[in-house]
Amino acid sequence: MNRNARIYIAGHTGLVGSALHRKLQAEGYTNLITRTHVDLDLMRQVEVETFFENERPEYVFLAAAKVGGIWANHSYPADFIYRNLAMQTNVIHAAWKTEVKGLLFLGSSCIYPRECPQPMKEEYLLTGPLEVTNEPYAVAKIAGVKMCEFYNRQYGTNFMAVMPTNLYGLNDNFDLETSHVLPALIRKFHLAKLAAQGNWEAIKKNESRFGRIPDDIRAALGLTADISQLPPRSPQVVLWGSGSPRREFLHVDDLAGACLFLMDNLSASGLQPRDLPNSIVNIGCGKDITIKDLALLIKEIVGFEGDMSFDATKPDGTPQKLLDISTVKALGWSPRISLRDGIKQTYEECLGHVHPC
After folding, report:
1. Is the link from the previous residue into 235 a cis peptide, with omega within 30 of 0?
2. Would you say residue 226 lies in a domain?
């Protein structure tokens, strides 16, 4: 991509979109196009098509999505499938109509079957039943993947989809009712540390910044309606499930680097998105970790010295999710940020020492 190319980042305020925005700016791209939801509702087809006709972006990074963990998917399944289908359909179709040179659609590793062979290859898509705890989101993302594939086939477009593993990093969501596992664990252990110290003022500020503390977590931490009256105690962190599922985690800045690398280098390598299995590329770090070991690592980094337990009555989700990243590695990309270093950086944001862009 030329440094002056008109590049639209859909969802630039979210975890992935903001990382893409930072990366593109750092690499000297000067003609970035962004819109907030107030300025452009991606669920409205007319608004999206008018925007594309007026702005004429040459490249599109489609990172806008409604996201959340197991609890959020279970509670709002209709929202997850409808909102994601509407946004991605409108953007992909408008990109074709206005002859965008390249589009990169951000999918998710949850598109692969629940009992998928490990590590998961791109060609395993649609070879078995999905994990029920995130099925609405997965179905929507699969539709986006197939739209890219079929538009490439019918119209000769240059649309690709990347399947990132579990992401975390700057601008992450720490709301305990909608967040994914890693930021949720960071916040839980941090709150437990504050409770053990009797630092009620800091707990109040944390709740004001990141959202209310659910009742079950308040109970485990020993927090009542008037937390300022409680003496220091020995709180515990209670985590969902058994702790045995294995997950892979990638820092979002590494993902942003991979996306820019692919948009810049895929065509130069002699490949086109339509030459790839399902027009998709997996992006991960190639290593996984149990949720229990992840929790112990975060516990150490945060500095919480109290107890930790698991509630096995809560769902675990897919037993293992590890991506095969041989395709992207063969093209010349590899991740750079270690899990420990990435968690430390993310915790700094939770403490307020890092300010999101």
Report:
1. no
2. no
In a domain, 231, yes or no: no
Coil, helix or strand at residue 281: strand
Q: Which residues contact 137 (CB under 8 A, 6 or more apart)?
A: 66, 67, 68, 73, 80, 81, 84, 108, 110
8 A C-beta contact, residue 289 and residue 339: yes
Query: Residue 104 in 3-state DSSP?
Result: strand
Extract the tokens encoding 123.
């060609």
Q: What is the pLDDT along the chain (357 residues), one digit of tens a residue?
A: 899 999 999 999 999 999 999 999 999 999 999 999 999 999 999 999 999 999 999 999 999 999 877 778 888 999 999 999 999 999 999 999 999 999 999 999 989 998 999 999 999 999 999 988 889 999 999 999 999 999 999 999 999 999 999 999 999 989 988 888 899 999 999 999 998 888 888 998 999 999 999 888 888 877 765 555 555 567 889 888 999 999 999 999 999 999 999 998 865 655 677 677 667 999 999 999 999 999 999 999 999 999 999 998 888 877 888 999 999 999 899 999 999 999 999 999 878 754 443
Domain around 164:
7-171+248-286+322-337
Catalytic residue among 112, 137, 168, 347: 137
The reported pTM is 0.91
Residue with tokens 């437990």: 192
Question: Is 137 annotated in the active site?
Answer: yes
Q: What total of structural domains would you count in the chain? A: 1
* Residue 24 domain flag: yes
Where residue 36 sits, what CATH number does that domain have?
Answer: 3.40.50.720
Q: What CA dihedral angle connects 32, 37, 40 and 44, to 10 degrees?
A: 130
CA angle, 349 then 353 then 354, to 5°: 55
Contact 354, 178 (CB under 8 A): no
User: In the beta sheet, which residues pair with residue 10?
Assistant: 62
* 278 located within any domain: yes
Question: CA-CA distance, 69 to 184, in Å (whole number)?
Answer: 10
Residue 246, strand partner residues: 290, 320
- Of 71, 39, 76, nearest to 54 by C-alpha is 39
Bridge partner list, 102: 59
Q: Which residues of 258-271 are buried (b: 16+ CB within 10 A; e: fewer)?
A: bbbbbbeebeeeeb
